[in-house]
Amino acid sequence: MEGTTEMEIEKPKSKKFGLKNSIQTNFGNDYVFQIVPKDDWSSVAVSLSTKAVKLYSPVTGQFQGECKGHSDTINQIAFSVSSSPHLLHSCSSDGTIRAWDTRTFQQVSCMDSGSSQEIFSFSFGGSNDNLLAAGAKSQVLFWDWRNGKQVACLEESHTEDVTQVHFVPDNRNKLLSASVDGLMCIFNTDGDINDDDDLESVINVGTSIGKVGFFGDTYQKLWCLTYIESLSIWDWKDSRNEANFLEARSLASDSWTLDHVDYFVDCHYAGEGDSLWLIGGTNAGALGYFPVNYKGARAIGSPEAILGGGHTGVVRSVLPMSSMKGGPAQSRGIFGWTGGEDGRLCCWLSDDATGTNQSWISSALVMKSPKARKKKRRNPY
């Protein structure tokens, strides 16, 4: 069991955080892939390389239940639209997007790509919030999630795996797709959707795209992480590049005293203003929140938060609780959760909250699948 460690906040003032819960699962070589919250934060869902999704309380860590049914790697999970708060969706390399009722942990619907191709990502949106878009092998698929009918298939805009699809937060009729082919495409999804009429713009990043996200007060800015660990910042409305950090790992490594930054997990946007943090990690499991200065003298600054001592391998997912409804009082001072290739979930807690020195291990957290296969982090899927 790991002892309590500290995370130091260097800016804007000194704060200390502790490792509240260090849970060594009985994964063996299996991974924690992704951690996502329910809208009201009563649950967090955790996708596993055992092809299962498990749910826990984000405050207590208590196990709530398990969703099982996929026959291949789960590539993304997300809770559904606000009108169906109990529905959790997951997409998989088995070619399906499945919906689960998190009250019963039973599958309630399944949408199939129809051609047995892998599905790497999905997003809910559309002008009437009725669309479910998915990224597959060189295709973007659309369903009407209310009846499960496929309504469109875009197959001319990308030539390789579509790793990301996102409806734009403040422009719900706009969809962004990103691919291993190095392109990001913006589509208009109003009316009948097709490649010829609805492709509005194309951004050429130049290398395989792993993860993208929107930020800024009007969500007009776009960050893009690639599989060679570079970062670029864009204005998606006019396809303008605002910053390129081709050597992002070296820049981040030079700004802290720990080991070399080996990879990036994600970017963090706090939900207001235009500040952005790049979350980088070491193969030994340490994490840093690096502020990104993409205006003027472009730079990646010294980490404003460091999470060390919780993980012993590559971290796959970071769930900050800064956006939790009710704020610190409801979260009981929890900074967030992390999960990774060491099969471990870590909960980070502020030092002035109760329970900092209490650690526990749950043997019931995850059951190992003897046939689970290990995935390399830098694969697109």
TrEMBL record:
InterPro entries: WD40/YVTN_repeat-like_dom_sf, WD40_repeat_dom_sf, WD40_rpt, WDR89. WD repeats lie at residues 67-110. SUPFAM superfamilies: WD40 repeat-like (SSF50978). This is WD repeat-containing protein 89 homolog. Pfam families: WD40. Keywords: Repeat, WD repeat. PROSITE patterns: WD_REPEATS_2, WD_REPEATS_REGION.
